[in-house]
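Bump. Still looking for histidine kinase structure tokens.
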Amino acid sequence: MAGRGRARGLSILSAFALITVLVVILAATGGSRAESGAVSLTPEERAWLNAHPVIKLAPDPDFKPIEYFDENGVYRGAAADHIHTLEKKLGIRITIVHLQNWDEVMDAFKRHEVDLLGAVEATEDRERYMLFTDPLVVVPGGIFSAREFGKPLAIKDLQGLKVAVVSNYMAHDYLRNAYPQISLDVVPDVSTGLAKASLGMVDVYVENMANATFYLQEAGITNLRLVGKTDFMYRWGIGVRKDWPMMRQILNKGLAALSEEEKAALIGHWIHVKAPPWRPSWAFVAGVLASVAGVLLVAAVLINLTLKSKVSARTAELQRELAERQRLEQELTRLNEQLEERVRERTAELERQVTDRRRAEEALQQLTAGLEQRVRSRTAELEASNRELESFTFAVSHDLRAPVRHISGYAEILTEELEAREYHYAGGYLARIMVSCRRMQEMIDSLLALSQISRKELQCKQVDLSAIARQIMAEMREAEPHRRVDAATGDPALLRSVIENLLHNAWKYTGRKEVAHIEFGVDTSGGEPVYYVRDDGAGFDAAYAGKLFTPFQRLHTDAEFAGTGVGLATVQRIIHRHGGRVWAFSEPGRGACFFFTLNTESA
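Sorry for the wait, here they are.
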């Protein structure tokens, strides 16, 4: 009877929780009315959109019913409908980027590879690198379990329990920061969390009511129930890059223009809450129980009078049985003590065997992991060498032909004129031959320097990158003292040749500016140091950024800016040899920024 009573209590809690979901959703979708037509943007807002024609949004790929990709790869859900509606009202186009999971989405957002997140909850951690629009949906959080706890749970009651949360979701960030003593089992998605709770692999699963109820119905899980509510609400808004406050202003203007009917339609299409069935009130149940108790009390008195006469006779018999039972219990206790002693001895022996086996397995795993890492590193080096060899072969067979043809052609013309004793243009031809020879010599020297990078053994030690940057900038200022350039340095790290190539590029491509700005620094906001060299020079079209690090592939002609096209290939090879990454971002006429990371442990 107690178990069934607890089950009824939890069912009533579930019903009240569902009603709360409906109330909160209706409250979130209320507010001031606005016309459903297009939103009027200010000239400043329209100018900002024109300057940012490509806006990328990466949704959570499996966050039903808020946002997800269906079997055809189409972006769907309550957040998706909001995004499509905002596109129409604001007259903008948002590009949807399909990534594998939420962790990949967050990593890409932090690197500014995407600009918006479809539905995200504001947390203390995320506010360091993200802006948030007004909420799209507001939903309470729930605590789900297959167990019975006898009372509704709160967050503070989860200490001592194994609690499942989805990686980087609101519940994960909140519990990790506010309740570090709670044991968290971090899972990749909602389906995994519900499955673990259903199978008893965790005690409870914490999730918002909308996602949890949707996935429970979709998966047909029937043994999970709502056993409590969180002390926080889920308020999902659109996540915006920290450096795009104007984008948030524009999106909030679009959200404010949604009418109450439009908001209700956008939410109600995906989140459905049914009114719970009738349940008897506690007062009703108490009255019924009191009546039944009275009847049982009268029956107990009558039965007691009937049995009283039999108690005395039965008591004597029970005393004899009790004496015999005590004797048997004493004998059983002696045998149990002997058995427990044997079990302890055997357990100690098994523990020693298990410990020895575990140590051997750990040693084997460490050896295997080290070998696999060495194989992966060697494979990556071989693949990089093959790609470099292909580029080198192409350069030798293609790019070196041009100066050779020039030399051969002008030498032939010069020979003919010398034979005809016509010397009018001989000097010019000889000058062009010398220019081509110098050009070919520069290209050969660059190729030799590039090839030596792979053969040279790395001598990794601490290097002050800031000091190297200042030294290189001083050398370039001494060579061209009339140039005005502001240089800013950041935190220290590594490698003169990388800084030298990047700073020389920045110096070269800002040469046509009266006052140029070149900045070298490091960004540690993402946890991993990311070094950069930024300038406000000629820039380039980002659509062709993939050609930057291929030898002899240049985005500017020699007439515009001189060069061999090998410098950035040298940078990439050095960075790869140090286990790092290198990439660039630019817009024509607005400068360029080159980023790189270093991983000396893998190197």
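The chain is about 50% helix and 15% strand.

Edit: fixed formatting.
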